[in-house]
C-alpha cells in the first residue's frame, strides 16, 4: 500500500515525497490535508496535500523533519511504504467554492512561509489551471529554505520573495514585503496566508490594517483528524472551532493566534524527549535538561 | 467454596491497589467450575424475561443451560446466533439495567451473573479456537452492502448481513477496526488484542471485508457508494463525534483535554506504554468533569498514569450516569468523587498551564425534564481544587461530516440522524444506528441498532427484487 515513488531534498530539513494514495488523490482539493502513519506503531501525522494526480493516484507531500515522527518518515526511501494514509480531510479552500467569474474579479495575494509553501502551491496551481492570475509573497529565514521556487514561478503572475537574512528578495519578513508592495501602490482584496502561526499572526495584523480580507490555514495538534478528539480546537471569534472539521481554513482576522501558539507547545517537552530517544538512542545519557 | 444459591458466585478481580498501577484487565473472569456453579442458579424460565431485556435478544436460558452441562461449544453456538461480539458484551454491557435487571432470581436474591457467563463462554470459545459459523442453509444474495464505521453497530450489522448471505464491506476512518472498542474503552476493561482484535477477526471470518483509512463523506460520499461503487444499501454507524466543552473561562489552558482525546491517545495510540510514540500528559493531579462511563474510564486511566484523580460531578451519587460497577471500581482504586460540585472557571499559570479549577457547591432542587433532580448553585460556595490537568467528559455531538455531504439526510435538532422502525433514514436504502442516531449511548444499544438495521436492510433489499 502507500508506496513512496519519489523523494526529494528541498532544503535544510525539508523534503518532498510522492506517495501512492488513490483514495486521497481521487478526491483531494486544494486546502485539504491527510494523515500519515509512517509505520504500524507510528503517530498520526497531519500533512497538507501539496499536489495530487487523479489518474495515477499519487499525492505529493512536503514535510520538515522537526520531530521524531517526521524524522522516522524521512528514513523511508523510494520503494518503501507508509503504514497508513487517510484523507482527504478537512474542507477544501474557500476559493474552490467560488465561480471562475467571481475569482477573476478578485485581486488575490498568497503569502507562504517556510513549508507552508507546499499547501499554497496546491491552491496556486488549481487557480492557475483555472486561468486565474494571482500574486504570491514567499518568505523564509534564508534563501536555502525558499522551497519550490521554480514550481511557484510557473503558477503565479508575480512571485515576490522575502528572507529574514536578506539572502534572497526583500531583506525582511513577508509583512515587510507586503508593506513595500502596498506602498508602491499594489492593491489586493483577498489574501491567503499559510505558514508558521507566528507569521500568520503578524501577516493578519497587517492585512487587517490594510483592509484585506484574509484566510489562514491552521496546522494544529491532531489525533484522529476526523472530528472526534477535539485536540485541534482553536478560538475563532471567541467560539471553539475544530481545525479538522470546521477548517483547516479560517478567517485570519477572527483567529486567536496567541492561544493557538500556546496550544502548539502542549506536547513540546514530550516530543523533544521522543526526538532525543530516536536520534541519540542509548548513547544519550542525560544532561540535556529535557529527559526524565 | 461457600455457595449460596441466592447470591452470585463472586468473580476474581485484580487487587485494587495493584491494578491502579497497571493496565491489565481488572476482572479476571470465571473459571469453568465457577461458571458451571453460577449457571446452576438459573431457573431456565419458559417465558424468559432476560431475553426481552437483551437488546440483541440472546437466548440466555438456552446458553446458560449448555453451560450447566459443561457444553461450552453448545453455549457459544447459541450466543453466536444473536451476537457477533460476545466477549465484548460480557465485559461492557450494563447487564444490571438490562437482562439481569429482570431476572426472576433477582426478585428475592441476586440475579444470575449473565454477563460474566457470557464472557466466560466467549473467552473459552476463543481458547478452544471456535469461530462463529455461517448458517448451513445460507443462500448468497449477491448484493453488496456498505457499512460506515467499524464500531459496535457497524460490526454487528456487518456480521448479521454476512450471515444472511450479503457481501459486506465496512469502511473505517481510523487505522484500526473497532470504533469505541479500540479508541474509547480502556485496556483494563476491554483488552484490545486478546478480545477486540479477535472479535473483529471473527467478523472477517464470516466474509466481511474491512477497509481502514477510509473516511466516508470525504473519500466517497454515501451517494457515490450507492450510485457508482455498486452498493445496494448503506448503513451509517459513524458513531459520536465532536467533544463538548463547558464554555467556561480558562478552558483553552494547556492541560485541558476532552476525554475523547485523552482516551484515544491512551487506547488507540497506546500512549500509556513507556515506549509509545504518541505523547500523553501524565498529570500529578487530574480533575475529570462528568459522571458517565467515559468519565470513569478517563479517571481510571489518569490514575494508572500516576495522577491523584478527582471526579467532579454536579449532581449526587444517585444520579451518576456511569454503571454502578464502574463507580465502585473507580472508588476501590482510590478515585475521589467531588459530588454536587460544578466547575465555573479553569485557572492557569503565567505559561498557560492549568493550575486549578474553580468550582461551586450544588444542591438538588426539583426534578427536571429528564426526571433527575436538577442541581442548583449554593450561593457563595466557590472554592478551588488545585490540579494540573482537567479532562472534560461531557458527551459528544454527532459528527456533521456525513450529514453535510449527503443530500436529503434528515437529522434532529441535536444532529442525530432520524430513522424509522427499520432503522432506515429519510433516504431510501440508507440506514443508520448507534451513536450517530442516538447521541452518546452504550455499546449494546449500538449493537441492538446494528442488528435491527441488518433486518431492515434485508427486508428492504428483498422487497427490491
Q: What does this molecule look like?
A:
The complex is a heterodimer of chains A (292) and B (465). Chain A is an alpha/beta fold and 292 residues long. Chain A folds into 2 domains: 4-89, Beta Barrel (Elongation Factor Tu (Ef-tu), domain 3); 94-217, Rossmann fold. Chain A contains 10 helices and 16 strands. Chain A starts with a strand and ends in a 12-residue tail after the last helix. Chain B has 18 helices and 16 strands. A 5-stranded parallel beta sheet of chain B has the order 3-2-1-4-16. In chain B, strands 6-14-7-8-9 form a 5-stranded parallel beta sheet. In chain B, strands 10, 11, 12 and 13 form a 4-stranded antiparallel beta sheet that branches. Chain B starts with 15 loop residues before the first helix and ends with a helix. The mean pLDDT of chain B is 94.
Question: Could you give the topology of this structure?
Answer:
The complex is a heterodimer of chains A (292) and B (465).
Chain A: E1 4-11, E2 14-20, H1 22-27, E3 33-37, E4 45-48, E5 51-53, E6 58-64, H2 68-74, E7 84-89, H3 100-105, E8 108-113, H4 117-129, E9 135-140, H5 149-155, E10 158-163, E11 170-171, H6 174-183, E12 190-194, H7 197-210, E13 213-217, E14 233-236, E15 239-242, H8 243-246, E16 249-251, H9 257-264, H10 268-280
Parallel strand pairs in A: 8-9, 8-12, 9-10, 10-11, 12-13
Antiparallel strand pairs in A: 1-2, 2-6, 3-4, 3-7, 5-6, 13-16, 14-15
Chain B: H1 16-19, H2 32-39, H3 49-53, H4 60-68, H5 72-82, H6 86-92, H7 105-108, H8 114-127, E1 144-148, H9 152-164, E2 167-171, H10 180-183, H11 192-205, E3 209-211, H12 222-227, E4 233-236, E5 242-243, E6 256-258, H13 259-267, E7 285-289, H14 293-304, E8 308-312, H15 324-332, E9 336-338, E10 341-348, E11 354-367, E12 373-377, E13 383-386, E14 389-392, E15 396-397, H16 401-405, E16 430-432, H17 435-438, H18 443-463
Overall structural class of chain B, as computed from helix and strand content, comes to alpha/beta
Helicity level of chain A: 25-40%
User: What's the number of extended β-strand segments of chain A?
Assistant: 16
Helix percent band of chain B: 25-40%
Average residue pLDDT of chain A: 91
Strand order of the main beta sheet of chain B, please?
3-2-1-4-16
Counted up, domains of chain A total 2
What gyration radius of chain B follows from the Cα positions, in whole Å?
23 Å
Poorly predicted residue ranges of chain A: none
Query: What percent strand of chain A?
Result: 25-35%
Instruction: Give the overall silhouette of chain B.
Output: globular
Amino acid at each position: 500500500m502507500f508506496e513512496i515513488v519519489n523523494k526529494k531534498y528541498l532544503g535544510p530539513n525539508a523534503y518532498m515525497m510522492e506517495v501512492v494514495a488513490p483514495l486521497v488523490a481521487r478526491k483531494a482539493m486544494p486546502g485539504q490535508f491527510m494523515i500519515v502513519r509512517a509505520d504500524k506503531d507510528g503517530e498520526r501525522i497531519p500533512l497538507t496535500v501539496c499536489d495530487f494526480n487523479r489518474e495515477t493516484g499519487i499525492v505529493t507531500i512536503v514535510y520538515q523533519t522537526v520531530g521524531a515522527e517526521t524524522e522516522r518518515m524521512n528514513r523511508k526511501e523510494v520503494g518503501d511504504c507508509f503504514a497508513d494514509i487517510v484523507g482527504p480531510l478537512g474542507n477544501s479552500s474557500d476559493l474552490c467554492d467560488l465561480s471562475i467569474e467571481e475569482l477573476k474579479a478578485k485581486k488575490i495575494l498568497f503569502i507562504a512561509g517556510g513549508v507552508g509553501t507546499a499547501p499554497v502551491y496546491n491552491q496556486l496551481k488549481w487557480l492557475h489551471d483555472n486561468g486565474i492570475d494571482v500574486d504570491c509573497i514567499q518568505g523564509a529565514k534564508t534563501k536555502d529554505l525558499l522551497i519550490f521556487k521554480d514550481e511557484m514561478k510557473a503558477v503565479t503572475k508575480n512571485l515576490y520573495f522575502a528572507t529574514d537574512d536578506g539572502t534572497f528578495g526583500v531583506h525582511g519578513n513577508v509583512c515587510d514585503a507586503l508593506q513595500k508592495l502596498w506602498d508602491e501602490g499594489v492593491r489586493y482584496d483577498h489574501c491567503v496566508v499559510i505558514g508558521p502561526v507566528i507569521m500568520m499572526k503578524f501577516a493578519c495584523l497587517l492585512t487587517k490594517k490594510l483592509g484585506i480580507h484574509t484566510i489562514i490555514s491552521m496546522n494544529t495538534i491532531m489525533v484522529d483528524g476526523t472530528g472526534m478528539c477535539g485536540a485541534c480546537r482553536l478560538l475563532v471569534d471567541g467560539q471553539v472551532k475544530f481545525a479538522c472539521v470546521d477548517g483547516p481554513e479560517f478567517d485570519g482576522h477572527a483567529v486567536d493566534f496567541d492561544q493557538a501558539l500556546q496550544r502548539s507547545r502542549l506536547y513540546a517537552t514530550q516530543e523533544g524527549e521522543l526526538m532525543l530517544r530516536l536520534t541519540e538512542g542509548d548513547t544519550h545519557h542525560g544532561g540535556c535538561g529535557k529527559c526524565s | 467454596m461457600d455457595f449460596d444459591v441466592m447470591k452470585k458466585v463472586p468473580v476474581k478481580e485484580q487487587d485494587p491497589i495493584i491494578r491502579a498501577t497497571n493496565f491489565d484487565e481488572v476482572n479476571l473472569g470465571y473459571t469453568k467450575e465457577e461458571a458451571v456453579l453460577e449457571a446452576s442458579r438459573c431457573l431456565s424460565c419458559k417465558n424468559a424475561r432476560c431475553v426481552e431485556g437483551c437488546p440483541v435478544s440472546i437466548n440466555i436460558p438456552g446458553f446458560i443451560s449448555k453451560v450447566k452441562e459443561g457444553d461450552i461449544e453448545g453455549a457459544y453456538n447459541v450466543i453466536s446466533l444473536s451476537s457477533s461480539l460476545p466477549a465484548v458484551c460480557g465485559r461492557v454491557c450494563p447487564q444490571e439495567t438490562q437482562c439481569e435487571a429482570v431476572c426472576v432470581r433477582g426478585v428475592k436474591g441476586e440475579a444470575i451473573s449473565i454477563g460474566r457467563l457470557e464472557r466466560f463462554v466467549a473467552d473459552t470459545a476463543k481458547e478452544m479456537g471456535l469461530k462463529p459459523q455461517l448458517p448451513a442453509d445460507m443462500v448468497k444474495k449477491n448484493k453488496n452492502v456498505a457499512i460506515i464505521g467499524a464500531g459496535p453497530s457497524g460490526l454487528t450489522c456487518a456480521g448479521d448481513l454476512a450471515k444472511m448471505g450479503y457481501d459486506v464491506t465496512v469502511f473505517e476512518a481510523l487505522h484500526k477496526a473497532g470504533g469505541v472498542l479500540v479508541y474509547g474503552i480502556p485496556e483494563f476493561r476491554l483488552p484490545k488484542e486478546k478480545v477486540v482484535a479477535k472479535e473483529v477477526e471473527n467478523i472477517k471470518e464470516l466474509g466481511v471485508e474491512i477497509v481502514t483509512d477510509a473516511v466516508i463523506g470525504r473519500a466517497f460520499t454515501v451517494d457515490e457508494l450507492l450510485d457508482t461503487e455498486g452498493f445496494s444499501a448503506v448503513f451509517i454507524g459513524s458513531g459520536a463525534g465532536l467533544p463538548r466543552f463547558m464554555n467556561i473561562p480558562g478552558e483553552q489552558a494547556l492541560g485541558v483535554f476532552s476525554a475523547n482525546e485523552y482516551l484515544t491517545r491512551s487506547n488507540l495510540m497506546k500512549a500509556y506504554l513507556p515506549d509509545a510514540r504518541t505523547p500523553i500528559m501524565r498529570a500529578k493531579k487530574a480533575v475529570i468533569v462528568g459522571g458517565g462511563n467515559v468519565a470513569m474510564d478517563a479517571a481510571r486511566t489518569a490514575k494508572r498514569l500516576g495522577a491523584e484523580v478527582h471526579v467532579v460531578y454536579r449532581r449526587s451519587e444517585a444520579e451518576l450516569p456511569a454503571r454502578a460497577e464502574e463507580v465502585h471500581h473507580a472508588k476501590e482504586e482510590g478515585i475521589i468523587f467531588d459530588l454536587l460540585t460544578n466547575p465555573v472557571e479553569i485557572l492557569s499559570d503565567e505559561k498557560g498551564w492549568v493550575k486549578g479549577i474553580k468550582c461551586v457547591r450544588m444542591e438538588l432542587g426539583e426534578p427536571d425534564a429528564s426526571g433527575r433532580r436538577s442541581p442548583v448553585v449554593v450561593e457563595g460556595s466557590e472554592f478551588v481544587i488545585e490540579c494540573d490537568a482537567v479532562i472534560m467528559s461531557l458527551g459528544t455531538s454527532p459528527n456533521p461530516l456525513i450529514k453535510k455531504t449527503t443530500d436529503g439526510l434528515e437529522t434532529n435538532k441535536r444532529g442525530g440522524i432520524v430513522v424509522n422502525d427499520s432503522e432506515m433514514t429519510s433516504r431510501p436504502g440508507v440506514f443508520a444506528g448507534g451513536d450517530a442516531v442516538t447521541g452518546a449511548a452504550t455499546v449494546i444499544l449500538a449493537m441492538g441498532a446494528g442488528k435491527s438495521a441488518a433486518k431492515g436492510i434485508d427486508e428492504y433489499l428483498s422487497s427490491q427484487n
